[in-house]
Amino acid sequence: MARRFLKMHGLGNDFVVLDARHTPLYLTGAQARVLADRRFGVGCDQIIILEPPQSAGADVFMRILNPDGSESGACGNATRCVASLVAAEGAGRDQLTVETISGLLPAIRHADGTVTVDMGPARLDWRQIPLAEPADTLSLDVAAGPLSSPCAVNMGNPHAVFFVDDAEAVDLTTWGPQLEHHTAFPERANIEVATVVAPGRVRMRVWERGAGITLACGSGACATLVAAARRGLTGRKAEIVMAGGALIIEWREDGHVLMTGPVATAFSGELDDSLLAGAAR
């Protein structure tokens, strides 16, 4: 039996969304890799599986699979997409809660179609990142090529934010994978390079753990704003500009980080069983 899917994106950070709330679905790593492949499958930065909520107060559980088959704890752009999708199912209901393996994420769909997600508190202790050993997360002793001394932030997944003079000039294809697998990060890390271009505006590029270079990363934008504010480079609210567009990020005084931005549905389709069956062998 064919299974329907949606192709959605937030600022070009694209997802294959599968609804398993009524018919359970388990994808092996091999199946996820084929599905995410842009030549042999549908193609995406992450696979999103909607499941019944596991916690009281949640409206949906969102499972996130990377293109390499690994599971991710957070994806801000996908959370906005899922929140918009589920909100549209209930007429007039624009507030809901998306559950992930990293916790509950309250969301609000606005009249203009944008979505704000409370990504939860920024985690800044070295144990929470996590790091391999005690360290000051404001400036880590981590370096590769022209990149050094990142600020570490956990936004449901680990991030290392490197501030540079020109984010466009950094060869992320070379340095991203090296830093993702640096021994300082036992669970690997998302790698951001960021340039503050104005007090309320930051240009950011990202190498995502398990996915590589993407056009946007919601949790990475949140981590970048927190890191910039901690360094005194910006205030607690700024526009984070990525290749696919911009998000408004606010780090509230209570520690929670709010992310606001657009969502889009590109197309819908059906997965032929033979695609996943072939990958299972």
From TrEMBL:
Keywords from the UniProt entry: Amino-acid biosynthesis, Cytoplasm, Isomerase, Lysine biosynthesis
Gene3D superfamilies, per the entry: Diaminopimelate Epimerase, Chain A, domain 1
Molecular-function annotations in GO: diaminopimelate epimerase activity
UniProt: substrate binding residues: 13, 46, 66, 76-77, 157, 190, 208-209, 218-219
Substrates-to-products reaction catalysed: (2S,6S)-2,6-diaminopimelate = meso-2,6-diaminopimelate
GO biological process assignments: lysine biosynthetic process via diaminopimelate
Transmembrane segments: none
InterPro entries tied to this protein: DAP_epimerase_AS, DAP_epimerase_DapF
Assembly mode: Homodimer.
Function: Catalyzes the stereoinversion of LL-2,6-diaminopimelate (L,L-DAP) to meso-diaminopimelate (meso-DAP), a precursor of L-lysine and an essential component of the bacterial peptidoglycan.
The protein, known as: Diaminopimelate epimerase
